[in-house]
Amino acid sequence: MKTFENIILTILAITLFSCSKNDDAPRIENVRLIAYSIGANEYDLRYNDDGFLTRYKSLDVIYNGDNKIIQNGSFRYEYNGQGRVSKVTRTNRETTIVYNNSGLMATFNTVFRSTDRSKSTFEYDSQDRLTTIVEKGLDNTVYYKITLAYDAKDNIVQYLIEQTRDGLTYTELNVTNYTYDNKNNPNYNVLTKTGNTSVINMFPFISYLQIGNYASDAVFYNSKNNVLSSNSIYSDGSYNRINDYDYVYDENSYPISVEIEYTYPDEPERNTTSYKTWTYETF
């Protein structure tokens, strides 16, 4: 009997540990962001009767009959027969997107000012996570390579940028490392209110990590969790900045405010602090 009780207690302990270790906060579908502030500036968000985001800042989000985004501020979108974004148009730029057999973005073909052209190619790991983008410059002599690394929860923890002129030997330009909490990100919440759930996508909204756009177009990343710290270092020593985020959360594990400290180890006179807030509603 004693042995049986010990086995049960051991199983219970393992279960509790495995459930609590790195678990994300539960996501509540009927919560949405309705306002936020950056410093002294305040912004509202609007939604239609179907619950889709239609306006943020002073930008409109417009959908087609299938509830696919066709306009997001200055961005215009077209779709292929599978319902995937096939073309993105914005000022002086048009990008055509080709997908691989798994339905993942394979290449960007970008035209600037009707004549200049560049190309990006994408690579993925065995979990279909974007790991590498190679951008071929407009003059065909400079290539940029972006390499991404992830944690166990699929958050991007490292963003490395390299450059080459021969397409073979790369030199590091800069690297940024990130850490995250296990709470809900309001920016990902906004993304889901547009009918999209992929953390890497073609839709820039309130706040995001831009991936690419050194020689071609970019994709945009919204982690499901909130950044706790980031450290950006340029290999030539010209730039080194550490960002630390101190959040206050609500009962749904969403942040309602944050204090961000920007530290420049080599230039302490540049150190500064900024503040953000978020307001939600249940619907």
From TrEMBL:
Name used for this protein in its record: DUF4595 domain-containing protein
Species annotation: Aureibaculum flavum
Lineage: Bacteria, Pseudomonadati, Bacteroidota, Flavobacteriia, Flavobacteriales
